[in-house]
Amino acid sequence: METLIAQLLNGLSLGSIYALIALGYTMVYGIIQLINFAHGEILMIGAYAGFFAITKLELGFFPALIVAMVVSVVLGIIVERVAYKPLRNSTRLSALITAIGVSLFLQNGGLQVFGTDYVTFPRAVDKVTYKFLGGNATITSHQILILIITVIMMFILQYIVHKTKTGKAMRAVSYDKDAALLMGVNVDSVITVTFAIGSAFAAVAGVLLGMYYQTIHPLMGSMPGLKAFIAAVLGGIGIIPGAMAGGFLLGIIETLVSGYLSSAYRDVVVFGLLIVILVVKPTGLLGKDTHEKV
Amino acid sequence: MKNNKWLVVLIMMLVAALAATGCGGKDGDSETIKVGVNYELSGDVAAYGTTAKDAILLAFDEINEAGGVLGKKIEAVVLDNKSDATEALSVATKLVTQEKVVAHLGPATTGATLNTIPVITEYKVPLITNSATHPDITVDPQTNKTREFVFRTCFIDPPQAIVGAEFAVKELGVKKVAVYYDNTNDYSKGLYKVFKEHVTALGGEVVAEEGYVESDLEFRPTLTKFKQSGAELIYIPGYYEKVAKIVSQARELGIDVPFLGADGWDSPDLVEVAGPEALNNTYFTNHYSPQDPSEKVQNFVNAYKERYGSIPASFSATAYDAAYLLADAIKRAGSTDTEAITKALAETKDFDGITGRFSFDEQHNPVKEISIIEMVDGEQTLKTKIAPK
Questions:
Q1: Is A131 in contact with B222 (Cβ distance < 8 A)?
Q2: Considering CB atoms only, which of B43, B217, B221 is closest to A213?
Q3: Given this model, what pLDDT does residue B26 score?
Q4: Does B82 sit within 8 Å of A116, measured CB to CB?
Q5: Are residues A138 and B269, on separate chains, in Cβ contact within 8 Å?
Q6: Which ranges in chain B are annotated with CATH 3.40.50.2300?
Q7: CA–CA distance from A54 to each of A47, A60, A64, B266, B269 (Å)?
């Protein structure tokens, strides 16, 4: 029983990492129906920006987080303007392939610029370990911090999308781009804002990932990015609370598979799950069946 | 008919002469002895490659200052293989075919070294690796024959795991062990197998075993399982970057049993990532200890520290030995002919190196003692030395 609780805690903290990354993924998809595969790489750039802000500019953790967000937002906007905007009226497939191209470009560019070494991320936030259940279950201050930030970010996103004027415009663009344009919504700037917000969230995830796992690397975004994508699909891609639910569920499933079967089956189960979800309920756990508009 | 034959021979000789002059004279006439240095200077295991390259350059400078070898200076041709096994092959090809080196030092890891073997064998250039510890490096697993041109100055994996198992069961007195190995790495899997065999043979028991993969970041689920299994020691035959994460996550989960590892742990980055506190009560088998009081070791440690500002890691010591061993072999061969050097290398007897006095056995592996290093507050200390049986 204690082991189960310990494993569930492990799953929850891993899940909050996935949820954190999945939030940005799912929001961008929700608005412009583009799976932004470069999300993991914007996360990586954010992590490096945070790293340089802490080590070179000697900033504290939260100011460094702001720097990372600014750098990622600028990058996100550039990527959108250069790579995605010219394809706005092409098929979704070409946009998707471009996204993969951007992702590879940033990975390999990162390898050139930052080198192929693992970089040790500074311990900007003190780590305290809390033990309970007679020392059988533990949680660290880092895990709690990530969990709290993930929840706060989800609410911020929900608020932006559902309660603000920008959010209303974003939803209008998502619903019908041409009609929104006719109603006087500046579609281009709405999409740019969407990317900016998504990139800022990726930067937060990147810095937290660096802090949590202590090393950063130009390819650090690819595997977590892929897992976060699965989390987003699991919860229903495009639905913000769904990313959260999918992330936690995925983290817990992975942990239980590693803990009770073998870690060799972990990725098999996870990717198998993706296939099953896509076959059985493509809209995800929290997704509603929406029929194509006629 | 006869004329034709002579013509062919004549043309061949002409071509040969052209080829020889074309590359500026291979050995005899050149003023330096070119040695290829093919190492991981960037990438995942850059820490090993860089430290080895530094030690080799230090050794060559010392040798050149003392008058060089056969009246000539040694010239190192240093190239980076980016911690990539495929790149290691192209670097080796460049060194042997374009640079015409008389010997090839490196690479550091088993995978990269295995990839370079075909080309150095084809061109009959001797290769000395200082840290590739897999048995297949010097012995072809298909034919069971020793690879003629491949040598190493480090001990091989099995003795390391044997000594590790002895230390765990006899010195630390543990009975139940767990093994966490890198499922994508031959080095790690090799150590895991031998360790398991010997722990069982010594009366211990492997109560849990699990593999991780290169892209893993999260080890807590498996470590929680290990904790539940009642293991009194966890053996991690992996490389420092993952080891640091595993140990630090384990300590977070309240796992305070000793950890034991192998020479893949040896890097300053281990302490940097895991922190000194988490690493207390951890041990690993290694090639030498900078704390060894012998004069030879201390001279090397001081010279290295003066030049590079850090304490040389084990792979610096084995690389330094490789450079001196090569110079010694060229001296004994009395020529820079690659096959003569190879022969001299194979005949090495009681070579007095930093990592101990050693001779090559029939499989080109050095026979010597293995050090057990204990991590104490982030510092490596020499716990004991054990000779593999």
A1: no
A2: B217
A3: 44
A4: yes
A5: no
A6: 32-155+294-358, 157-286+372-386
A7: 11, 6, 6, 27, 19
The whole-chain average pLDDT of chain A stands at 89
Strands B73-80 and B370-376, bridge-based pairing: unpaired
- Rounded distance, CA A161 to CA A241, Å? 12
Q: How far apart are CA B167 and CA B386, in angstroms?
A: 8
CATH architecture of the domain covering B157-286+372-386:
3-Layer(aba) Sandwich (3.40)
Query: How does pLDDT run along chain B (389 residues), one tens digit per residue?
Result: 455 666 666 566 555 555 544 444 444 457 899 999 999 998 878 888 999 999 999 999 999 999 999 999 999 999 999 989 999 999 999 999 999 999 999 999 889 999 999 999 999 999 999 988 788 899 999 999 999 999 999 888 888 899 999 999 999 999 999 999 999 888 899 899 999 999 999 999 999 999 998 788 889 999 999 998 999 999 999 998 899 999 999 998 889 999 999 988 988 889 988 889 999 999 999 888 888 888 899 999 999 999 999 888 888 999 999 999 999 999 999 999 999 999 999 999 989 888 888 889 899 999 888 889 999 998 888 888 888 77
The structural architecture, per CATH, of the domain B32-155+294-358 is 3-Layer(aba) Sandwich (3.40)
Residue pairs between chains A and B whose CB atoms are closer than 8 Å: 79
* B residues 271-300 closer than 8 Å to A (CB): 272-273, 275
Q: How many CA atoms does the CB half-sphere of A111 hold within 13 Å? A: 15
Nearest one of B113, B188, B97, B183 to B149, comparing CA atoms: B113
* Beta pairing partners, B386: B370
The beta strands (E) that lie in chain B are given as 32-39, 73-80, 103-105, 127-129, 150-152, 176-182, 205-212, 233-236, 259-261, 282-286, 351-353, 356-358, 370-376, 379-386
CB B74 within 8 A of CB B85: no
3-state secondary structure A239-282: CHHHHHHHHHHHHHHHHHHHHHHCHHHHHHHHHHHHHHHHHHCC
Chain B residues with CB-CB distance to A4 below 8 A? none
Contact between A263 and B253 using a beta-carbon 8 Å cutoff: no
With CA atoms as reference, the chain B residue closest to A120 would be B273
Residues of chain A with pLDDT under 50: 292-294
- Taking the C-alpha atoms of residue B48 and residue B39, their distance in angstroms, rounded to an integer, is 8
Interface of A with B (CB under 8 A): 3, 6-7, 10-11, 13-14, 115-118, 120, 123, 127, 129, 131, 135-136, 138, 140, 213-215, 223-224, 254-256, 258-260, 262-264
CA nearest to A127 within chain B: B252
d(CA A277, CA A273): 6
pTM as predicted: 0.77
Q: Does residue B220 belong to the interface with chain A, where contact is any CB pair within 8 Å?
A: yes
Task: Please tell me which residue of chain B has the smallest CA distance to A221.
Answer: B215
> Distance between the two ends of chain A, CA-based, in angstroms?
53
The nearest alpha carbon in chain A to B270 belongs to: A120
B:74-93 residues touching chain A, CB 8 A cutoff? 82-83
Burial class (CB in 10 A: 0-12, 13-18, 19+), A189: exposed
Domains present along chain A, CATH in parentheses: 2-280 (1.10.3470)
| The two structure tokens encoding residue B372 | 């057990």
**Interface ipTM:** 0.84
Q: Residue B42 is nearest to which of A117, A140, A256, comparing CB atoms? A: A117
Q: 3-state DSSP call for residue A83?
A: helix
Contact B361, B138 (CB under 8 A): no
Please count the residues of chain A.
294
Residue among B234, B239, B273, B275 nearest B256 (CA): B234
